[in-house]
Predict the 3D structure of the following.
Amino acid sequence: MADPLFALAVFAGLMAVVILVFWPRRGIYARVSRILRLTERVQLEDALKHFCMWEQAGRVPTLESLAGRLTISTGHAAKLLTRLTESDLVRQGKEGPTLTEGGRESALQLVRTHRLWERYLADRTGVPAIEWHDEAERMEHSLSTEQTDALSARLGHPRWDPHGDPIPTASGELPEVNQLSLAGAPQGRVVEVVHLEDEPREIFNGLLNRGLVLGGRLEVLGRDNLQVRVLVDGGEWSINVVEAQNVTVRVLPKGERAGRPPVTLADLAPGETGRVIDISPACQGSQRRRLLDLGVVKGTEIRADMVSAAGDPVAYLIRGALIALRRSQATWIRIERVESLVEVAD
């Protein structure tokens, strides 16, 4: 005969396991179910965004493109497409799947949240540029429409993200976007960077390391089937064609110049004064915000006052206050020498 105490202990243990697994909202089953539902929702939203991006590029998405974008099997991609079709977010056309009006609205809301969060990271935090995209990928699935609208208002309703991509308005409107890539820019002309694609991450990081920034100017020296040679801030770089296709540019009028390094605050000798033209787009986040808080805005006159014994940092007179800046910070501040302007006027 079985020991009743042992049987009771076994029963109690089984009940404890059942409670641990199936307890409402807090049990293992409930938690795993929430994770699976969240994962599916994220994949469905990512699928909508993929269709939207391909639509804007004038391309028709396929099961293969969806599977490649989400790194899933084509069978799983087919299941996601079926769910989206049943939800009336996607319709099947003769050429392939297309977004319905409701699907496009949902996709643009995701794009809006993503790009606003990247703008927030660039302007208000010290997160490195190379990490903006991945951080925004996570947040785009977390913020509600109301939270996204509040974020937009806090940032002053920006029109562009830090890569030069347009930010959809609350009603889903998008401005016209220049589609000329650096790979197709005319030889011998000066161009301005209007967009840097942030995917794949390795290419984006390589472009930043070569000095390419949003708003930067470069001269197209020449190209062949493999690479484009450009002049950036006085240095010559060879950018392979694949990387060059991730850079969108606009051609500047003839006579515009590029290639000479800009004069920055770091070029001033003690006693010299410069007038701020702008802050380099490479300066982002908390560093940019600090400079703006110090009054480093267009038109401000700054005088190099004292150099430390080690040569770095340098004390600058900014709006009546003596501020120490390191050379790496001073090189972000583009200026024109006030003395040079006086000499030209004379």
Summary: Confidence is low (pLDDT under 50) at residues 32-38, 340-346. Residues 105 and 172 are 7 Å apart (CA to CA). Residues 182-251 form a domain with the SH3 type barrels. fold (CATH 2.30.30.90).
